[in-house]
Design brief:
By secondary structure, the protein is an all-beta fold. It is built from 2 helices and 20 strands. The strands form 5 sheets. A 4-stranded antiparallel β-sheet has the order 1-20-19-18, with no helix packed on it. It has a 4-stranded antiparallel β-sheet with strand order 2-3-4-5, with no helix packed on it. The chain is globular and about 55 Å long.
């Protein structure tokens, strides 16, 4: 049994980075991904509104923001879901190629089949992305899944470029396909399980090779969902923050667990008996933990539920035990 190197942290100690539009259930800001480079932080985040908000319900806006201190961010680019013709967007992720080109990986519901997909945009700067120039990376059909979303690109110490992906693994009969995708949100239907997949790029993000599902739900508190969000590499191997839940009715309110892998393909649960990190209020949700190395420790960004039912984005610095 591997000893967890990731310390349990108190999410209440975090500093608020972004607040939701309203202090009400269904209004969220979060599912962040951060690229630290050249003395600045590049953040991607999503804004969400509750169902019933006409044309702007669910994930309606995503943005790229810049900060010099990791706390105070200013938007430099954004997209609204109407520009993609989609019913919802979720996690985005930035990567900078060796030639200086910025890549923005985006996930959204494909209007063609109501299943989540991942595309990529490229630009010379984070302010210059053009959604009209996006190209496909992974679709549900191409991966043999019922949806792919929430990309997180990571460069490992040996130079590999990998992508963590949340995938929907269908549990429905063929006659239930319309029911599974009729709402354009299969994760919320009870007709799938939330699993984690891996992809690798041999050419710095120009192309990607699907490696398949690497982490599935467990037998206890995470028996419905196991979504890998970010990695912490050590000489021993890779530690991961993941989102878990036992039922699809809490699809939007996952909690944080820890896992470990030596090869990114086989994962060991370090918190099998319950989540490692839970908020003290609301549903207890702490999700989409993104870990950025900083001064020998980690700066974490995470989405947390509040007592009023809204979700906000916070950050916290933690040390790593020696």
């Amino acid at each position: 049994m591997t000893t967890a190197v990731l310390p349990v942290f108190d999410p209440e100690r975090g500093t608020t980075v972004l607040r939701p539009e309203r202090d009400e259930p269904g209004y969220w800001v979060g599912c962040a991904s951060v690229l630290a480079e050249d003395g600045r932080y590049l953040l991607t985040y999503r804004q969400r509104r509750p169902r019933g908000e006409a044309a702007t319900e669910r994930g309606w806006r995503c943005a790229v923001a810049v900060s010099e201190n990791g706390l105070d961010f200013q938007d430099v680019w954004s997209v609204e879901k109407g520009e993609l013709g989609t019913s919802s967007m979720e996690r985005f992720c930035l990567h900078r190629r060796a030639d200086g080109t910025y890549q923005l990986y985006i996930s959204y519901v494909d209007p063609a089949d109501n299943r989540w997909r991942i595309d990529v945009l490229e630009a010379a700067s984070p302010e210059a992305f053009d959604v009209a120039a996006r190209r496909p990376v992974f679709t549900a059909a191409a991966t043999g899944t019922e949806g792919v979303k929430d990309p997180r690109v990571v460069r490992t110490s040996d130079g590999r470029l990998v992508m963590l992906i949340s995938a929907a693994e269908g549990t429905f009969a063929e006659g239930e396909r319309d029911l599974a995708h009729g709402t354009a949100d299969i994760y919320n239907t009870g007709l799938s399980r939330s699993v984690s997949a891996l992809a690798v790029s041999p050419d710095d993000g120009a192309t990607w090779e699907w490696q398949g599902v690497v982490l599935r739900p467990g037998d206890g508190w995470d028996s419905w969902a196991a979504r890998l969000n970010s990695l912490v590499e050590t000489p021993e191997g890779f530690y991961g923050f993941y989102d878990g839940e036992s039922d699809h009715t809490r699809n939007y309110e996952e909690k944080t667990g820890f896992v470990f892998s030596r090869d990114l393909l086989s994962w060991e649960r370090l918190t099998p008996d319950g989540p490692a990190v839970v908020a003290p209020s609301g549903t207890g949700s702490v999700r989409y933990v993104d870990a950025v190395p900083e001064h020998g420790g980690l700066r974490l960004y995470y989405e947390i539920t509040r007592a009023d039912g809204a979700h906000e984005l916070r950050t916290l610095t933690i040390g790593i035990p020696g």
